Amino acid sequence: MKKQTLKDSSLQEHLQTKKSTEKKTGLGTFFETLFKNVQGYVEIRTIRKGQVKQYFYSDLKLLTSDLTSGLSKFKDTNVFFGVCPRNQKKG
User: Fold this and answer.
1) Over the stretch 14-54, which tens digit does the pLDDT of each residue have?
2) What count of Cα atoms within 13 Å lies in the side-chain half-sphere of residue 34?
3) Do 86 and 56 form a contact (C-beta atoms < 8 A)?
4) Share of the chain above pLDDT 70, in %
5) The pTM is what?
6) 72-78, long-range: CB within 8 Å, 24+ apart, which pairs?
7) Residues ≥6 apart with Cβ < 8 Å to 54
8) Per-residue DSSP letters for 25-83?
9) What is the mean pLDDT of residues 42-68?
10) Is the distance from CB of 45 to CB of 78 less than 8 angstroms?
11) Which is nearest to 64 in space by CA: 87, 82, 84, 44?
12) Average pLDDT for residues 46-71, to the nearest whole number?
């Protein structure tokens, strides 16, 4: 079995970071295009094994960061977003 060298490890880390940055940039651009000049909350719903959970975001950067960071609440689940912003954290 080949030993992983520091160089190999650094390359993999660089590629993962680049992939993550590209994903954040694309997703951030997508949400900014839809909600940039809008007041209120973006509703995110997750469905995992029939269980539905709601999350509300007024900060698009935090929304993008949470969706791309691998948080357990968004892993292995179906994620949906509302196209109409909410005035309150309900709906």
Assistant:
1) 455 555 555 567 888 999 999 988 999 999 999 999 999 99
2) 16
3) yes
4) 74
5) 0.70
6) 73/46, 74/46, 76/48, 77/46, 77/47, 77/48, 78/46, 78/47, 78/48
7) 43, 44, 45, 91
8) HHHHHHHHHHHTT--SBEEEEEEETTEEEEEEES-HHHHHHHHHTT-GGGTTSEEEE-S
9) 94
10) no
11) 44
12) 92
pLDDT given at position 10: 60
Residue 81 · residue 34 · CB < 8 Å: no
Q: How far apart are CA 14 and CA 78, in angstroms?
A: 28
The partner residues of 64 in beta bridges, in order of sequence, read: none
pLDDT reported for residue 40: 95
Residue whose tokens read 């999350």: 55
Residue 42: Cβ-neighbour burial (10 angstroms; 0-12, 13-18, 19+): buried
